[in-house]
Amino acid sequence: MIKKNMTLRKIGIVALTLVLMVLVVFLVSRSFAYFNYMKKGDTLNVISIKGIDVEIINDSENNLNINEAYPMYDEEGMNNAPFEFTLTNNSNKALDIVLKIENDIDKQGEYPLLNTNYIRYSYKVGNGEYSTPSNLGENNIILTDTISKNETKEISIKLWIDKDAPNEVQGH
Fold first, then answer.
1. pTM of the model as a whole
2. Which of 8, 34, 88, 121 sits CB 3.0–4.6 Å from 53 for a disulfide?
3. By three-state DSSP, how is residue 161 classified?
4. Residues 42-100: pLDDT tens digits?
């Protein structure tokens, strides 16, 4: 009877050890996959999101970065370099898109947020003309459009600070 209990105890210890090893391997592999997925590169050129491919054409850091900007007239803002990208619909149906400008969460601790009512923008789709400059406003929406299946649209956006913004907005 004592030998039988010792054998069961050894089997239980071996089984528990195996379960713990499998659990550790699973947790380590999940953590590695999570951190590997979250790793950021210097330049990201193509992003795929449920049937839409987004390809960044120019990757200049200053095209959408208005940290060092100052209030300017629309004529001067329209001379800024555009942020350009293409959207390709790879799905089997037309997709509605809403293009919004969002604050950079990583930079929010470094700079105070600029009121979106002072951000001006203009955009163009394809070879068309740039839109009439307007203020971003509270909803941050720049463009609402539909992309047919297998269609590609090139979009260019220019951002600047409104000429009517007070000087206190600099550095925001």
1. 0.65
2. 88
3. strand
4. 445 556 566 788 888 876 556 666 666 788 899 998 998 888 888 888 888 888 888 88
What is the number of residues in the chain? 172
Q: Residue 133 gets which letter from DSSP? A: P
- φ, ψ of residue 42 to 5 degrees: the values are -70, -40
**Distance (Å, whole) CA 148 – CA 122:** 23
**Distance from C-alpha of 21 to C-alpha of 28, rounded to nearest angstrom:** 11
- Comparing C-alpha atoms, which of 137, 60, 149, 57 is closest to residue 101? 137
Nearest residue to 120 (alpha-carbon basis) of 100, 139, 134, 141: 134
DSSP string, 17-35: HHHHHHHHHHHHHHHHHHH
Cα distances (Å, whole numbers) of residue 73 to 139, 163, 164: 23, 5, 9
| Largest separation between any pair of C-alpha atoms in the chain | 94
Q: What is the C-alpha to C-alpha distance for residues 139 and 102, in angstroms, rounded to an integer?
A: 10
Q: In the chain, at which residue ranges do the beta strands (DSSP E only) sit?
A: 46-49, 52-56, 71-72, 83-89, 95-100, 119-125, 134-135, 141-147, 152-162
Do the beta carbons of residue 55 and residue 88 sit within 8 Å?
yes
pLDDT, one tens digit per residue, over 1-19 is: 555 556 777 777 777 777 7
